[in-house]
Amino acid sequence: MVSRSQAGAFVVAEPGGRRGKLVSGNRWRSTKLPFPRVCTKTKNDRDASPAPVVISCSLQFTLNSLLQSHNYHSLFAIRQSFFNSIGTGGLQIKIRLSGTPDTHPQSIFYLRHRPSWKVRKNVFAALKQRSISAAPTLAPEGGPQRIMAYSCDHDTEGEVTLAMAHGKKLDHMGVQVKFFGRIDMEAGAHEGRPSYDFISLSKELLPPGSLFDTRTIPFNFRGVEKIHESYHGRNVSVKYFVRVEVQRQWLPPITQEHEVLVQIPGVEPSVNEPIKMEVGIEDCLHIEFEYERRCYHLHDVICGKINFLLVRIKIKHMELAVIRRETSGEGVAASAALTAPGGGGGAGATGASAQSDAQNIVTETQTLLKYEIMDGAPVKGELIPVRLYLRGIPADVTPTYHAENNRFAVRYFLNLVLVDEEDRRYFKQQEIILWRKELG
After folding, report:
1. Conformational region of residue 233, where left means phi above 0, alpha means psi within -120 to 50, and beta covers everything else
2. What DSSP designation does 124 have?
3. Alpha helix (H) ranges present in 313-426?
4. Sequence-separated (6 or more) residues with CB below 8 Å from residue 82
5. Which of 36, 69, 132, 391 has CA atoms 20 to 30 A from the CA of 117?
6. Strands 237-246 and 231-232, how do they pair?
7. Buried b (16+ CB within 10 A) or exposed e, 137-155
8. What whole-number distance in Å separates Cα of residue 374 and Cα of residue 315?
9. Residues 6+ apart with CB under 8 A from 440
10. What is the mean pLDDT of residues 61-82?
11. 58 CB-near residues (< 8 Å, 6+ apart)
């Protein structure tokens, strides 16, 4: 809101009755605003350039209205767009990958959400049959592009759109498109390099020149071998992404990235023997548990049974949990060999290096699912059946990773826990192998 003062100067009247300071003479004076700083001008400068006064007043009124309504998200968006327009010179970069599940039904599939490490609160969310149209989008402003997973043998191709605002010009030293496959360990406290690129390819889109309008340029990376599957963990992540870089003279390049989710279908193991083991406490408890197989695909069902051979303690209940254990750091393979049964029996120098590598390992354990399979005290000879659906786990279950690139490993365990009347816990863990049967 604009009003006139007694001296004839223009001032800004803020909502709530507060007014800006009077301006005398032909000088600029800034009002006290959180962001951005706006200025007023005197009556002598009104006819020469009235636009800054009107724009400043309207922007200040908008910001004050957002602050009074506690709409800080919109205020942050205005701030981000303001700085982005300054840092990019008005250039907008959009990356769009070609191909859909309709055109490539064997290599592209829709995902309901972006994979993550977190466990969802609703345990029944994974069992709900949702329509694909409810899937979130990768770029809401770019059209109906949904989150899609690509097979490892699918060629990465698409188009890059460089859009300049009307009346603006950007001089550049060349435009490049790059494709990376990266193991990122920046989330954890690791020594050495925080990331490792196992794929790094680059192609030139435009030679040095100037941008005046909107240009759309196709690109492709064909025949690239993707040896790892995309993974988003607690301390480590494996991701493929396309990056566009616009090089500038004396200024940092303008970059834009687009992630490519890659899944690798596995092959069923040729040897898949059942798991059978007897555990217990001497003269107190002796149980025998058996699972039908050791290897399961991600949508499989774990079936088994638990037989009580000797029961001399009062058991209150029994529960079964699925545990995911992520190990990251340099020398994961040596650490796994050291902790494996019968490991650590090599030479002294080899054992010392393995122990030093194990000190740099970061381990994160997460309980994905836990449910009670027995309530009450069992008796000798009682048989408890076990049936667990992996599809019902409220988390993004991944295949088992065995020391990928000697930098991280992901393993899954079945944890059987017995609790007696004195709340003492007896547990036994057994590792299972998970593999991906189909994409999606």
Report:
1. beta
2. T
3. 332-339, 348-359
4. 36
5. 132
6. antiparallel
7. ebeeeeeeebbbbbbbebe
8. 10
9. 109, 110, 111, 149, 263
10. 53
11. none
109 beta partners: 149
pLDDT grade, residue 339 (50/70/90)? low
pLDDT given at position 215: 92
Count of C-beta atoms within a 10 Å radius of residue 208: 11
Q: Which residues, in sequence order, are CB contacts of 224 under 8 Å at separation 6+?
A: 155, 156, 179, 199, 201
Environment class of 324 (CB within 10 Å of its CB; exposed 0-12, middle 13-18, buried 19+): buried
Residue that has been written with the tokens 């769009």 in this structure:
96
227-to-332, 401, 410 alpha-carbon distances in Å? 18, 12, 16
The alpha helices in 21-136, defined as continuous H runs, are: 51-68, 72-87
Q: What is the DSSP string of 288-338?
A: EEEES-SEEETT-EEEEEEEEEEE-S-EEEEEEEEEEEEEESTTHHHHHHH
- Name, in order, each residue with C-beta under 8 angstroms of 72's C-beta and a sequence gap of 6 or more: 66
Compute CA distances 398 → 224, 266, 362, 393, whole Å.
23, 12, 19, 11
pTM: 0.72
Encoded tokens for 329:
């750091």
* Ordered alpha helix ranges (H), 69-175: 72-87
pLDDT at position 86, please?
A: 55
135: left (phi over 0), alpha (psi -120 to 50) or beta: beta
Q: For 194-234, what is each residue's pLDDT tens digit? A: 888 999 999 999 999 999 899 999 999 999 999 999 999 98
The residue type of 413 is F
Residue given tokens 């003279």 in the structure block: 249
Q: Element (H or E) spanning 111, and its range? A: none
What SS3 class is residue 57?
Answer: helix
Output the CA–CA distances (angstroms, integers) from residue 174 to 165, 205, 208, 211, 364, in the order listed: 19, 8, 4, 11, 43
Question: Which helix (DSSP H) or strand (DSSP E) does residue 273 occupy?
Answer: none
**Angle value at C-alpha 187, between 436 and 80, nearest 5 degrees:** 105
Query: Is 421 a residue whose pLDDT tops 60?
Result: yes
